[in-house]
């Protein structure tokens, strides 16, 4: 996405949300929309697992859902092709990975170029992967945090949109650190989606992100 392709519409940003579990970050988006803090509409929630709490959250909010059977993921390309097709059918402009624990492949990435947003519980490029909070906690670093970035084929290496630091305190346990990181996620993710809805997020030619000033 370059500046001439940035969003200019003032209508609600139509987003699809990918989840795998309890859906607390999905709930943060739902709550921000309800509070008038996020100019977006969640048109579809896709879960990589059936019977998770995130699907119940979506259904309570009147949002269309799709539950993927784990057997579908035996062929990642087939699974991602189905996901891309359903997101496009629902009219999604952007895709938000909110605790989605499956890899997104080119079928989705090419359908939504520079429009797949991922949430990662560490300060990338440090502590990539599925166990980032634990890895940071056990490493002895004093600061970790949260990153929101555009996903691409290079896992956890896409252009960074925003980051927020979280200090690791002497009295922290892994559980208390996880809780504080999730609290930051619930604030930062809706803020970033709102910046996108305002057309203020631009990916430059050098693959870095610029946040335009509010007009």
List the helices and strands and how they pair.
Elements: E1 13-19, H1 24-34, E2 40-47, H2 53-60, E3 65-67, H3 76-90, E4 94-97, H4 106-111, E5 116-120, H5 132-139, E6 143-150, E7 160-167, H6 174-197, E8 201-203, E9 209-211
Parallel strand pairs: 1-2, 1-4, 2-3, 4-5
Antiparallel strand pairs: 5-6, 6-7, 8-9
Helix pairs in contact: 1-6
How would you concisely characterize the structure shown here?
The protein is 33% helix and 23% strand. It contains six helices and nine strands; from the N terminus they run βαβαβαβαβαββαββ.
The rounded Rg comes to 17 Å
- SSE string: EHEHEHEHEHEEHEE
Sheet bearing the most strands, described?
7 strands, mixed
Shape: globular
Number of strands: 9
Give the strand order of the largest sheet, numbering strands 1, 2, ... along the chain.
Answer: 3-2-1-4-5-6-7
Return the structural class.
Answer: alpha/beta
- Give the fraction of residues assigned to helices: 25-40%
The end-to-end span amounts to 20 Å
Q: What is the CATH topology descriptor?
A: Rossmann fold
Number of domains: 1
The residue ranges in which pLDDT falls below 50 over 5 or more consecutive positions are: none
Overall CATH architecture: 3-Layer(aba) Sandwich
* Number of contiguous helices: 6
State the CATH superfamily name: Formyl transferase, N-terminal domain
The CATH class is Alpha Beta
Strand content: 15-25%
What is the mean predicted local confidence, pLDDT?
Answer: 94
Structural notes for this entry:
This protein is an alpha/beta fold and 215 residues long. It has one domain (12-210): Rossmann fold (3-Layer(aba) Sandwich). It is 33% helix and 23% strand. The chain contains six helices and nine strands. It has a seven-stranded mixed sheet, with helices on both faces. The chain has a two-stranded antiparallel ribbon with strand order 8-9. Helix 1 (24-34) packs across helix 6 (174-197). The radius of gyration is 17 Å and the shape is globular. The protein starts with 12 loop residues before the first strand and ends with a strand.
